[in-house]
Amino acid sequence: QVQLKESGGGSVKAGGSLRLSCRFSGNTGNDVNCLGWFRQASGKGREGVARIYWRGGAATYASFVQGRFTISSGPDTVSLEMDLLKPEDSAIYYCAAAAGSLGSTCSFDDFGDWGRGTRVTVFS
């Protein structure tokens, strides 16, 4: 099992930027293949935002953040740089880890370990 903790949320005016960070620990050798960021807006379901292969670095983005958000990972961190923020980006953002063996693929459905979330508010 992997423990994750987010930081860096807050309030920003539309068009601005925020950087979210997440530190993870635990059985990373066996339990981390991909790292990702998800979000849940008030009254809506949770949706995948971006994911990255921890060992290989290839990233995938949801269409609604493509070109505005950048995910990156380190030995024990995963970050999300968010630029050109819009009011509709307001949500609680969660980092997550997906288990899997080296070379296996992952999708937004594969994530099983979660942080507690950090709130992002974008005002117009």
Task: Reconstruct the topology from this structure.
Layout: E1 2-7, E2 10-13, E3 18-26, H1 28-31, E4 34-40, E5 47-53, E6 59-61, E7 69-73, E8 77-82, E9 91-98, E10 111-114, E11 118-123
Parallel strand pairs: 2-11
Antiparallel strand pairs: 1-3, 3-8, 4-5, 4-9, 5-6, 7-8, 9-10, 9-11
Brief descriptors of the model:
mainly beta; 124 residues; seven-stranded mixed beta sheet; four-stranded antiparallel beta sheet; globular; single chain
Structure description:
The protein has 124 residues and is mainly β. The protein is 3% helix and 52% strand. It has 1 helix and 11 strands. The chain has one helix spanning 28-31; strands spanning 2-7, 10-13, 18-26, 34-40, 47-53, 59-61, 69-73, 77-82, 91-98, 111-114, 118-123. The strands form 2 sheets. Strands 2, 4, 5, 6, 9, 10 and 11 form a 7-stranded mixed β-sheet that branches. A 4-stranded antiparallel β-sheet has the order 1-3-8-7, with no helix packed on it. 35% of the residues are buried. The model has no long low-confidence stretch (mean pLDDT 94).
